[in-house]
Amino acid sequence: PTSVGILACELYIPSLYVEQSSLETYDNVSKGKYTIGLGQQRIAICSDHEDICSLCLTVLSRLLDQTGVHPQQIGRLDVGTETLVDKAKSIKTVLMQLFAENGNTAVEGVDNVNACYGGTAAIFNAIHWIESSYWDGRYAIVVMGDIAVYAKGNARPTGGAGACALLIGPNAPIVFEPGCRSTYMKHVYDFYKPNLSSPYPVVDGQLSVQCYTSALDACYTQYCTKAQMNNESHSNQSSVNEVNLSTFAGIVFHTPYVKLTQKSLSRLYLNDIIRGCSYIPSPLVEKYKGKIDLDSSMNDKELERDLIEKSREVYEQKTLPGLYFSQNMGNMYTPSVYYSLFSFLSSQTNDEQLYGRRILLFSYGSGLASSMYSMICRKVHDSRFTLAQIQKSVKQARHILDNERTELEPDLMDKLLLEREEKDHKAPFTPTQPSEVLKSDNMYLQSVDKNYRRFYEKF
Ligand code: ACO
């Protein structure tokens, strides 16, 4: 198979949200801490009718409906999540209901778990299956989602929720670039969930940001080397274009909060300065080259401010257009970087200019696991799966985001999170929150019986 990539997508928009500005007042922090300091506008909240399985069931069934792909045409389904409802039974098996009722029980794949990285691990599995001797010609689907909630305190405003489903196969309009992938993994306690009965992580926020930044540096260095070698092996010319930030039409990151992506883009810019890349203005190279290195510059706030300023144009062009969902929904954990990819693609008005261009993705999951890789936009022939179709489904999600959510006051959010904390792993359970906020054609949790079995229905 050639040109393996994303054929179609569906994005979930949770029913409730809280304004970050209201949260600032409620939490009694200085005005601007969440909206300017973290760069967040709204935080997505799920009602008690929405759990991780209902989110995943909804995006999966919509993906099948919208694309017209029959469940029997799916040979692999991988799930990425860190929102666990069962220690042994995967969410993938819950999703099998949609296949088994259509006569298909031959679907490989189970759940992938490692903080926000599980979605990327799931995608890699799907690609590898299609490129392997075990591929039977059918499509793969990747579903990833999380309900990201933190205990009361400074991490709470960086919560959120989301889920997406991707149809993966050959002849795709967005292709995973062969050979261009870097990885950095380590044992760190920056964010983990040792309390199995609590939805909240134990988190060392500052350490997690440092780990994220180290992973970003390591992945970018390795990515550039590999991509450069890839370029050279595919070119007959003696000199090929150097790989740097100007190589990409878009640059998207796992997004715990928007401000971190601006810092991350400026950090990649610093990498390019240190590498002496040709597009960097020479006064800037003279100012910094040989005088700074990646390790010692990690906590240098003055340098960070200068680099944010110098890289602002690149950020506004290549990263900011991808941040609409993150800014208005918060951290979605596993699907975060993919909402950014789709937001970026749907923001582009001239598809012709995108064809043949690369988009760089950085995926980070605490603990830690991270990868950087690139995708190439392609004009497809003889296929109903096009970039325009992907942009259309992203715009539909954006319409729901802008028009169909219900605002909650922060005290109600706290009440709701307390209820989730208390009832998360209790049985039996029946959701009690008002159902007015639920949307038709979404799947919802109907009940959990005394044996902890969960039942869902379409609203
Ligand atoms: N106006 C403007 N900016 C402000 C204001 C204000 N009134 N008040 C504070 N700020 C700025 C701060 O200067 C700081 O800016 P800086 O990052 O450039 O230094 C920023 O807002 C955040 O303020 P801090 O005091 O650093 O925030 P705090 O330490 O309370 O919390 C943190 C931030 C650590 C990110 C916390 O929200 C957290 O733990 N989140 C969860 C962990 C996380 O998201 N990690 C990221 C990678 S791992 C993952 O995805 C889970």
UniProtKB/TrEMBL annotation:
GO molecular function, one term: hydroxymethylglutaryl-CoA synthase activity
Pfam families linked to this entry: HMG_CoA_synt_C, HMG_CoA_synt_N
Hydroxymethylglutaryl-coenzyme A synthase N-terminal domain boundaries: 1-173
Keywords: Lipid biosynthesis, Lipid metabolism, Steroid biosynthesis, Steroid metabolism, Sterol biosynthesis, Sterol metabolism, Transferase
Pathway the protein contributes to: Metabolic intermediate biosynthesis; (R)-mevalonate biosynthesis; (R)-mevalonate from acetyl-CoA: step 2/3
Keyword Transit peptide attributed: no
Active site residues according to the UniProt entry: 82, 116, 254
Entries under NCBIfam families matching the protein: HMG-CoA-S_euk
Role this protein plays: Catalyzes the condensation of acetyl-CoA with acetoacetyl-CoA to form HMG-CoA.
The protein's name: Hydroxymethylglutaryl-CoA synthase
Organism encoding this protein: Adineta steineri
